[in-house]
Amino acid sequence: MSNRVRKALETDMPAVLELINELAVYEREPNAVEVTTEDLVRDGFGKQPLFNCFVAEEDNKIVGMALLYFRYSTWKGKTVHLEDLIVSESYRGKGFGMMLYKEVMKFALENKVKRVEWVVLDWNAPAVQFYKNTGATVFSEWDTVQFDQDSIKKFLNL
C-alpha cells in the first residue's frame, strides 16, 4: 500500500467535499453543508486563494483532508486556522490523521506563523485526547461565537 499526504489539487475537490459532508454527519449537522465543489475550486485555487488544503491518500484514493487558512492575531501576529481535519471513518486508526496533522504543523513553521489554532467539539473525546496527546492546549473557557447570513441580515435590518 502507498500512503501519502500531498497538497490538494482542483481535481481533488469532489473528494474533499465528500469528506466535508462525512464530517458534517459525524458532527450531527448532516444538512449544514452549503459549500459546493465549484465554491471550493473558486475559493481555493483562484488568483487569491482563501485556503490551503492537504489530502491523505491510500493507493491514490483520497481518505482524509486538512483545510486551513491564514488569520491575524492582535496578540501573536500571523497565525494559521485549521478549519477541518477529517479522515474517512473506515481509514481512522491507520495514521492518516497524524500525517495530515504533521503536514499542517510543517506548513505553519514554513510560513513562520506564531500559532496554529482550531476548534474541537467538547463531546468528541477521541479528537480532544488526540490533540492533548500531541501537546496542544485545549481551552474550555472560550466559547465560539458565530453569525449566519440570515442573522447578519436581521441584525442589520436588511
Automatic annotation (TrEMBL):
Belongs to the acetyltransferase family. GO terms for molecular function: N-acetyltransferase activity. It comes from Mesonia phycicola. It comes from the Bacteria. PANTHER family: DIAMINE N-ACETYLTRANSFERASE (PTHR10545), GH14572P-RELATED (PTHR10545:SF29). InterPro entries: AcTrfase_GNAT_prd (IPR017255), Acyl_CoA_acyltransferase (IPR016181), Diverse_Substrate_AcTransf (IPR051016), GNAT_dom (IPR000182). The lineage of its organism: Bacteria, Pseudomonadati, Bacteroidota, Flavobacteriia, Flavobacteriales. The keyword Cell cycle does not apply. The keyword Oxidoreductase does not apply. Keywords: Acyltransferase, Transferase. This is N-acetyltransferase domain-containing protein. Residues 3-158 form the N-acetyltransferase domain.
